[in-house]
Every structure is written in structure tokens, then in C-alpha cells.
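$ run holo --ligand "nicotinamide-adenine-dinucleotide" --emit C-alpha cells
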Amino acid sequence: MTNQINVKLVDSSYSINIGDKSLKKLIDKINSSRISKCLIVIDSNVNKHHSLLIRKTFALLECKVLQYIFIATEKNKSLNQIEKIYNILSYNYFGRDSAIVAIGGGVTGDVAGFAASTYMRGIKYFQVPTTLLAMVDSSVGGKTGVNFNNKKNLIGSFYQPDGVFVYTDFLKTLPYKELISGAGEVFKYSFLAGHNNYLLLNNNLKKLFEGKEIDYNKVILSCLKIKSNIVVQDEKETTGLRKVLNLGHTFAHAFEVESNYKLKHGEAVIAGIYCALVLSEISGYLSKEKWELFFGNFSYIPISKTVLKFDQDRIIQFMFGDKKNTKGNISFVLIEEIGSIVVDVVVEKASILIAIKTLSEFVKDQKRFKRGKLSSFEGET
Ligand SMILES: NC(=O)c1ccc[n+]([C@@H]2O[C@H](COP(=O)([O-])OP(=O)(O)OC[C@H]3O[C@@H](n4cnc5c(N)ncnc54)[C@H](O)[C@@H]3O)[C@@H](O)[C@H]2O)c1
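-- output --
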């Protein structure tokens, strides 16, 4: 069975296809789109594990097909890689009627999408996400880009794909660490809609961390419904609505850079959401009871011990460099209640430091902490 979500935007519309037949749908879509040439940007690990499936699938394309095997690392999320893709496109006379297909995780999708958005002022591109993170989040919404000067996603564009095709069998070869990273974004989505969504995602996350089978199609469908619904209302992050998707991300981006990318994006998001919960409580948006409930409910989610090595002042510096900031302030996305998120909250540096310190305490002794260690920080400024 394949589920479909239609993303209807002002200038363009596309469908997200989730399920067994999604790769066939991708081929049908390209073959019916009068595309002359196609560059498939394939994550090297995906190619290693799934080359037969990929070859068989793309043999059905009627246009000329080239491939670029891409090593997906944050270091390679760079203008240097974009130039390499431009070179392939230009040497092979790719015109405006050509397309790029990104097969990989968020790094591959962001890089390939940015190349597609800028080559000849924009050619078509399709997303085939292969990590959980990309399936639940990054493949949808049209944010593309690369890192620059040690700043995450500093150069980029809003450029919507012409279709997203989610085939969950790719996850069978995804390393556990990467699965956990994807769980970070699922964790985020659990706060962004109503109670049923919270329960569905929380139950599945728990099973995932217990090493049990989960219904990926259901989880992905739930997350992408939330994301696409937000994106259609605020495609380019101008009304503020889309900012809710950045829950935990002001912390997360700084944590990623501070860890020199040892911390995966989703792992950083998990840590970032815990900090956002603390900030929400300190800033008076979230009651202490709710704060403890959330920390307790999700106490099965491990947080990387890397956070214990963080230099707090450097983290604050990285946060000042975050492109989401305005007027020299660091602003945050905070939580009032499940499904009720506040954006653009400016907080004191002292509160940010308390949030990071609380996270460290939590990581040191996650089990004991949930029995109420918050009080040890009360009164600090
Ligand atoms: N554009 C957006 O809206 C958006 C949203 C969230 C995150 N992001 C970006 O996404 C990136 C993180 O993406 P990610 O977590 O998917 O990481 P990733 O793309 O780096 O992939 C993680 C690792 O998994 C490997 N891999 C991918 N698929 C595999 C498979 N099926 N089997 C085996 N190995 C596989 C890759 O080779 C890589 O080593 C970050 O750069 C982040 O900034 C973008």
C-alpha cells in the first residue's frame, strides 16, 4: 500500500508517496515529465547496500541517466561538493529540462536540492530519503543548503522538490546510531500536534528504543502530515508558523558544531529539545508538573554523553551565529503544551546556561534525575 500526501503551495504542488510502490511512482513521474537527463546523487552507503535495487529501478527510466556517488558527511555539505555537481551537469550538457534525484539522507537531500535550485536558475528535483530523519523531516519542505564558515546551513534556498518518494525498506541497512538520530525529529513532532499524535509517536519511539518492530509507514505519515500542513501555510518561514519546526534546533545546531559534528543532527535535536523544555519552564510557559511529566515520559530516550564535554561559552557564541537570530538576540522556540508552541522567545544568557547545565545533570544520571532534580536549579539566575 502507498499513502499519498499532496502538498499544495502557491507556485508549485507535489506529492509525497509513502509505501511499497513509491519507487515505481517515482519512475512513472519522471517518465511522464518530459525530462531529458537525470543526475542521480546517491549516498555512497546507500549505493553500497542497495545498488541492485537502484540499478533495477532506474533502468526503467526513459531518459539519459548519470550518477554521482556522494559521501554524506557534514564536511561535504559544502560549496565544494555543489561545484562538483555543477561540473557534472555542465560537462554533460544538462539543460533546463533535466532533473536531479537525491537518494540518501538529509545531507544528500540538502546538497542535491541546493544544486538543483541554483543550476540554470532551477531544475527539477526529486527526493528519495533513505534515513529515518530524511523520511520524517528533511525530504519535505524545500529547505536546501550547505554549511559555511562552520555555520550550519548558512548558504541555501527554499526550493520545493517535484516529488518525495519514501520507501522504508532502505531503513533495514541504516545503522542504529542513525535510526536514533531520526528518532530525534520524531521526538520533535510528538510535541507539534494533538494528544493522539503525541501518544502514537511516543509509543512507537519507546518500541524503537526497546529494539522492537515499529510501523514506520504510520510514524512517517504522521510526521509528514504535520510538516506539510505547516509548510503549505508558511512556505518560506515568513509568518512565524514554520518556526515551530525549529523546536530544540537553536541548541541543536550549536551542539552539533561544538561537538565537531560527532553528535548527529537528530541526537543534537534530542538534547536541544530537553534544553527547550527546561527553558520553557524557567520562562514560565510550561508548568513544573508538565515539565516533569515530559522528562519522565521520554526518559527512555538516551542522550549522548558528548554533551558533558561542551564548553558553554562557545555554545553561546555559536548560538549568536545562528541565522535564525535577529537584532543580536538569541531567540528560541518553546513549549506551552502538546501542540501549543511559542516562537521568537528571547531569553537571558543565564537561563540558557541553566538549561545546558540541567541537561548535563540529566545526562549524568538520567534515571535518578526524573525523580525531581529540577529543584536544585531553582533560584539560580
Ligand atoms: N532540509 C531540511 O528541512 C532539514 C531538516 C532536518 C535536517 N536537515 C539536515 O539533514 C542532515 C542530517 O541528515 P541525516 O540524519 O539523514 O544524515 P546523513 O544524510 O548524513 O546520513 C547519515 C548516515 O547514514 C548513511 N545512510 C543513509 N541512508 C542509509 C541507509 N539506508 N543504509 C545505510 N546507511 C545509510 C549515510 O551514508 C550517512 O553516513 C543535517 O545536515 C541536517 O542539517 C535538513
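-- notes --
The chain has 14 helices and eleven strands.
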